[in-house]
Design brief:
membrane; binds adenosine-5'-triphosphate; four-stranded antiparallel β-sheet; single chain; Rossmann fold; alpha/beta; eight-stranded mixed β-sheet; 373 residues
Amino acid sequence: MTSTSLATPENRTASPATMQALATLNDRLAAKPAAHLRVEKLSIAYSTARGPFHAVDDVSFEVKPGTNLGLVGESGCGKSTVIKALIGLQPEGTKVSGQALLDGQEILGLSERALQDVRWTKISLITQSAMNSLDPVYCIGDQICEAIQAHESVSRATAWARAEEMFALVGLPASRLHDFPHQFSGGMRQRTVIAMALALNAGMLLADEPTTALDPIMQSQIMSRIRGIHEHMRRSMILVTHDIAVVAETCENTVVMYAGKVAEKGPTTDVLARPLHPYTMGLQNAFPRLPVKGQPRQALISIPGIVPNLLRPPPGCRFAGRCPFATERCHIEAPAVTAVGAQSAACHYIDRAPEFREAAARPETWRKLGAGA
Ligand SMILES: Nc1ncnc2c1ncn2[C@@H]1O[C@H](COP(=O)(O)OP(=O)(O)OP(=O)(O)O)[C@@H](O)[C@H]1O
């Protein structure tokens, strides 16, 4: 990446500190390009007292270099489980199968030693809870320096300068590097975690609900900061969120997960404008959309029912029990993934998607569950 490519309209209005931080990033960005991730047939089962819990089943997707992928779905659909497996943080005893190739290197099942070489330098994590990732007894600057020096043989002065650079990128003054975590607000702590995740310039960022713990104003500030950084640094990112609107604004591609499986995936604009899977249609109804002038404000419709228990996953389509269009076949036979252009979905009735979309927009459709397609 060249310095001219960083001079986007947005950063022309950025502060001198941010501009300086962006300029000094150039060499490191060029040395470590954005990563490519290919996940193939990823299955993950937690070991529980009642047997294996199949939290993720046969999940495949790709993150192209320099793009953002949104991983969406209700709570308990397996999004965080995917993220944890990618960075080797699954609990002991968890069974992980399939492949995850980061720039061609298998990152599933690495030894702790091998993981240390990959984590933070090639793939880094922005977690849900910033407070837990910061040590209360060290000042923030020391923590960032320690992370840098654990992976790169640079002097403390260089590491501190890098920490200042990262703070400028996330919009925090360098003087605050001397503070301790308890002196920061929730939003500032979250920015710090983002700065730490960026400090080693990993080609792949995993952001697991990076704003969930914050108030709505702070959420939108942090998300626009993440978008800005993405724009300048062109890292690859997986963004886990419940919020379809955030995905629409931030991610080129989207994977919709339901009960541990991929329900639908493809370019975000296609998935949101022309969803193929009834679950995506239902998920969209549950989120507020921007009002269109002259049209009545759309009512929010939630999907009745709950995600099935994955100790014993249902044999057919996992969404069948909540799908207003499900037939007997859906309850017995698991649907294969079918592609329509760049988009694909696991639904037996993908060819009826236009008709389903119309019906799914009406609240009464979701009231007569199991009525058959
Ligand atoms: N250590 C564990 N042992 C057993 N089951 C687990 C464990 N961790 C998570 N689960 C279960 O796995 C399923 C998927 O959880 P996961 O956290 O991946 O979902 P999610 O889609 O990220 O949800 P959320 O949006 O609430 O974080 C859930 O039913 C959860 O209860």
